[in-house]
Design the sequence.
């Protein structure tokens, strides 16, 4: 077997056990997960090709694929990501595409500033999104269009891709020269993993993620695709109280107490982000 990103055969088996298959369920069979010793990418040995259809995916993993469900689940999370990105990227008068746009929460938010907003996702969102934006229901449809974009957002999907390299490359092809590609990438080497080890991985390794990235493997991927890293930063998506509760009970947290006040918790979260052990990264790369 070879690493799907760098083709190296220097692989280390880091998991051979059940993995999470839904909100609170695990596979009955064991799954192997490998860690490439050259580029640092971690991947399911048997990658799942069914993750790319959001009609199926969101129903299975979010509980529903409805527009209402998308908005209630994603709106606050997405707004926070976008506000952070806006510190470095000017969306005014730009041609913007969001891949995996869902019900178009981010596009709605960006529309008044942008020159053009377009979304790519399953056809189930088509009628809703195309009321306000251009819409592509497949990567193939996007490839066939003549539009090229100044900014392409991909904030919750890179880890689900079957062929990450090919996916990023096809987005790069739809970018204007000097255009920006913006990814949110879950960080494997996050504080939970460092502190909790297997108690964290038991919940983190799941059938819905084909890949797990680190700063090193993300840098490697973009370098290989000749994309220049313009800005990268950590994005800590849970409060420090969530981590404290996780440490206390040793499993995934649903409810947690506010032991540490908001001001101190925010200070700690900033430190976590600065030291790049946050739960995710935002990568802004330039063509
Ligand atoms: Zn590799």
Sequence:
């Amino acid at each position: 077997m070879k690493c799907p990103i760098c083709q190296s055969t220097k692989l280390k088996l880091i998991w051979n056990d059940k993995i999470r298959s839904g909100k609170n369920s695990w596979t009955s069979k064991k799954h192997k997960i490998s860690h490439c010793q050259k580029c640092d990418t971690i991947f399911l040995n048997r990658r799942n090709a069914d993750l790319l259809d959001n009609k199926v995916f969101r129903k299975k993993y979010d509980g529903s694929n409805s527009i209402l469900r998308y908005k209630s689940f994603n709106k606050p999370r997405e707004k926070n990501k976008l506000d952070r990105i806006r510190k470095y990227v000017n969306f005014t008068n730009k041609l913007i595409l969001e891949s995996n746009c869902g019900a178009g929460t981010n596009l709605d938010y960006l529309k008044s500033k942008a020159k053009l907003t377009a979304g790519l996702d399953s056809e189930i969102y088509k009628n809703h999104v195309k009321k306000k934006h251009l819409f592509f229901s497949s990567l193939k449809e996007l490839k066939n269009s003549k539009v090229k974009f100044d900014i392409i957002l991909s904030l919750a999907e890179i880890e689900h891709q079957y062929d990450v390299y090919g996916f990023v490359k096809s987005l790069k092809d739809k970018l204007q020269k000097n255009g920006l590609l913006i990814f949110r990438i879950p960080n494997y080497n996050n504080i939970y993993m460092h502190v909790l080890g297997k108690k964290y991985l038991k919940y983190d390794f799941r059938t819905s993620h084909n890949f797990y990235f680190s700063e090193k493997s993300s840098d490697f991927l973009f370098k290989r695709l000749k994309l220049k890293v313009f800005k990268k930063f950590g994005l800590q998506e849970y409060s420090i109280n969530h981590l404290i509760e996780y440490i206390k009970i040793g499993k995934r947290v649903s409810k947690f107490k506010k032991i540490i006040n908001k001001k101190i918790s925010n200070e700690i979260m900033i430190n976590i982000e600065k030291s790049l052990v946050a739960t995710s990264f935002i990568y802004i790369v330039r063509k």
